[in-house]
């Protein structure tokens, strides 16, 4: 049994029964059967369904947003924005997707894209709708079918997504929610009826899924953690950089793989940036996520807050200094204050970890070489944000930053048309854009 807990109040919400072994088997077979017919549908049938799903997201936006806020604590306004983004994602693949599947001619033949079968998605709680849509929209367009194992604390969201897809008129078995625990995932991956798996989550979960996929010789896409650098050079617009840095750190209460977590600032502008950034972080309003004036809701759970507090304590024990904030707020709920850490020892293991909460680590760099070295001195390589108005500096960063994505003079974001993913321990493979669509398709060569 899964029970939702409102992290803003600690109050239990709806409960959801875990699938029995027989029920799980029925769903897998239903997916297998659905694929046999869906794979041969034409693109118009698939894109029409994508458009109808988008309409359902729009029509149910407020209800869907409230479920996410109650289950994992994001502000209602950010949950509404997430639902709107989901509708845009479905429409993107409906409108642009068929062109991505056009055959590619080469001397003597063509290369054509074909579906593969049921795809299993193991998804996290932090963007509980958008993470699913990133896999589901291209899955439907490709002619595949989808199975969702969602995080335990967002089972209401998972059920709602399935309801939306069914209400849009999807064939039975095209997309199914699997309310199961993580210990069932390896057996699912080994099942011959499931052809591939995609996971967004922690390093540990990624290693387990990758191992299971490797044993079954199945395609896997992994989007894991990140400790994204936010680099500020002297030529940058400091006011805009500092303002954006606040949003980039506290969005989703700091619980995003592409949140800016390490602010790396050139020595010449370090003090000026810190003054502006600190003022912005101190002004962050943490409170009831249903209220429009709230900037930041609670963390997803008491356990998640304690993890962040423990990380801060370890950094302080190694000589780091908490300038302000970074503390549990009194009263009900998993709230904590936004904060800034300085003098973090870069050679200590804790500085290599991902801080999944609203606390920034601030570092000083003497020059561009030092900034790049600091940026790359972690095992992650997901995203990054660089702030410079110098063309030569921009070229250096684009070439030398070890990451799958770079935002220039802007906050990094995931977009339906832009490839999303990382390198190193941040995973492999890509979501979104044509590359995410092609990940789980068979590129078939036809000669003659």
Keywords for this structure?
448 residues, alpha/beta, Aldehyde Dehydrogenase, Chain A, domain 1, 41% helix, Succinate-semialdehyde dehydrogenase [NADP(+)] 1, NADP, Ald_DH/histidinol_DH
Description:
The chain is of the alpha/beta class. The protein folds into two domains: 2-224 and 426-447, Aldehyde Dehydrogenase, Chain A, domain 1 (3-Layer(aba) Sandwich); 228-408, Aldehyde Dehydrogenase, Chain A, domain 2 (3-Layer(aba) Sandwich), CATH 3.40.309. 41% of the residues lie in helices and 20% in strands. The chain has helices spanning 21-38, 43-59, 61-72, 76-100, 130-142, 155-167, 185-190, 203-215, 238-250, 270-282, 302-317, 368-376, 391-400, 433-438; strands at 2-6, 11-16, 104-106, 109-115, 118-122, 145-149, 175-177, 196-200, 219-223, 228-232, 260-266, 321-324, 339-342, 359-365, 380-381, 385-387, 407-408, 423-424, 427-428, 441-447. The strands form five sheets. The protein has a seven-stranded mixed β-sheet, sandwiched between helices. The chain has a six-stranded mixed β-sheet with strand order 7-6-5-8-9-19, sandwiched between helices. Helix 2 (43-59) runs antiparallel to helix 5, helix 3 (61-72) packs across helix 4 and helix 3 packs antiparallel against helix 6. It starts with a strand and ends with a strand. The mean pLDDT is 97. InterPro entries: Ald_DH/histidinol_DH, Ald_DH_C, Ald_DH_N, Aldehyde_DH_dom, ALDH_GabD1-like, GABD/Sad-like.
């Amino acid at each position: 049994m899964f029970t939702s807990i409102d992290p803003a109040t600690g109050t239990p919400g709806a409960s959801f029964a875990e699938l029995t072994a027989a029920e799980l088997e029925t769903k897998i077979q239903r997916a297998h059967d659905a694929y046999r017919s869906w794979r041969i549908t034409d693109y118009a049938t698939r894109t029409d369904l994508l458009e109808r799903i988008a309409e359902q997201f729009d029509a149910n936006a407020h209800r869907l947003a409230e479920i996410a806020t109650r289950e994992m604590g994001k502000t209602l306004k950010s949950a509404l924005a997430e639902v709107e983004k989901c509708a845009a994602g479905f429409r993107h693949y409906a409108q642009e997707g068929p062109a991505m599947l056009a055959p590619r001619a080469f001397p003597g033949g063509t290369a054509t894209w074909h579906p593969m079968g049921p795809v299993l998605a193991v998804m996290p709680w932090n963007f509980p709708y958008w993470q699913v849509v990133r896999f589901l929209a291209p899955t439907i367009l490709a002619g595949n079918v989808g199975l969702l194992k969602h995080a335990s604390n967002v089972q209401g969201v998972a059920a709602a997504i399935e309801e939306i897809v069914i209400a849009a008129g999807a064939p039975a078995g095209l997309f199914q929610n699997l309310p199961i625990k993580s210990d069932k995932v390896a057996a699912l991956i080994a099942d011959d009826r499931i052809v591939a798996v995609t996971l967004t989550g922690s390093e540990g979960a990624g290693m387990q899924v990758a191992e299971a996929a490797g044993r079954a010789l199945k395609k896997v896409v992994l989007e894991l953690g990140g400790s994204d650098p936010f680099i500020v050079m002297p030529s940058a617009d400091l006011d805009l950089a500092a303002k954006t840095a606040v949003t980039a750190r506290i969005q989703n209460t700091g619980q995003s793989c592409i949140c800016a977590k390490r602010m790396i600032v050139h020595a010449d502008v370090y003090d000026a940036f810190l003054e502006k950034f600190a003022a912005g972080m101190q002004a962050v309003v943490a409170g009831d996520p249903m209220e429009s004036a709230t900037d930041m809701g609670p963390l997803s759970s008491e356990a998640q807050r304690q993890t962040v507090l423990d990380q801060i304590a370890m950094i302080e024990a190694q000589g780091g200094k908490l300038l302000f904030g970074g503390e549990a707020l009194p009263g009900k709920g998993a709230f904590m204050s936004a904060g800034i850490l300085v003098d973090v020892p870069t050679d200590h293991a804790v500085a290599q970890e991902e801080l999944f909460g609203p606390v920034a680590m601030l570092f000083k760099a003497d020059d561009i070489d030092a900034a790049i070295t600091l940026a790359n001195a972690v095992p992650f390589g997901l995203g990054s944000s660089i702030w410079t108005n110098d063309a030569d500096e921009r070229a250096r960063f684009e070439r030398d930053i070890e990451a799958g994505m770079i935002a220039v003079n802007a906050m990094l974001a995931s977009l339906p048309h832009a490839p999303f993913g990382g390198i190193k321990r941040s995973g492999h493979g890509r979501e979104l854009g044509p590359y995410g669509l092609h990940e789980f398709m068979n590129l078939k060569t036809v000669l003659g």
